[in-house]
Queue: 2 jobs
Job 1
Amino acid sequence: MFNASVIGYQTYFVPPKEKKLMEDLFFDIYRLGELQADITKTEPIVRNADMISLNVSAIRGSDFKANKNSTPNGFYAEQICQIMRYAGMSDKLSSIGLYEFNSSLDDKSGLSAQLMGQMVWCILDGFLNRKKDFPVGTKENYTKYRIHVENTEHELVFYKSDLSDRWWMEIPYPPHERVRFERHHLVPCNYQDYLDASQNHIPDIWWKTYQKLQ
């Protein structure tokens, strides 16, 4: 497995050794508070996924009661729907699962069931709005940006899609690994990553991917 991403973890539920293992493997792990401050940060993460597994216990208990592991904190209903739409829009995604919905725990109004339905609707809406703009071939429909980061030997290359305004970042890898990791030569990113690079800060996603390709 080349990469795994965990989004929306809550520190008090995650043993330090498990968090350290994720970091040692250069996998992606994002705290709930970080993503709630800007839910658009989840878009490049889910865009890079082949498979997504969503446990509904990640949704705060007041927004989703039909789960025995519900807790006071978690994603809001509208946030989880936005993430599901991002997932549906991903050209790379081939499988998505929603788990641990327990209808016997839903209230009389069936709000949890309604939210499940809306999540599925958002996935389908995203699917119908796919742009099919993963940068391949001549990349004629993209704007290319090159940034040399001071005091390093690295030049960061970004591509911005003319169809969707989404961003990708180019990661170098050893020639003998080219066939095995070619799919990860370009990784999704966002505009903030480009801004960080222009300020001589190499984005975390660049470093993590670079380390895994070595």
Job 2
Amino acid sequence: MLAKQFGFEPPREKGMNTVEAFEAMIDGKVSAVINLGGNLVRSVPDRDRIEPAWRKLPLTVNITTKLNRSHLVHGEKSYVLPCLSRIEIDTQEAVSMEDSTGCIHGSRGVTPPAAPDIRSSRSSWCRWQSTRSAHVPPIDWDRWVGVRHRAR
């Protein structure tokens, strides 16, 4: 179904979990990391092995609501793309958030954005992907920006 809808054959092999990804990074088998939020480098127990491997990555991309210590440990080329937090008002998109009990709720935001040109994480991801057209399947990433959830 994905192949037909998006015009490419999706990979069938199993991907890596976090531990496997970090081990592959240490072994030099990972060339890029895209991190959607979180303090990933600082959250791993074996930072003495991870930080040097992370710094050798050709590319690190962080889509984040605020700066954290992981952004100071970066690959050869690094991008930090700011995005709206769940409490900021998003005039383009409806977003959801998961609470501490695992329940998912809609979020409309309650405070103005920190800056007028900050976008949601989805919008940042789509805009970044659309610049990489030679390396990604032919997906109309612009269609995914501004997508509103239907009220139930």
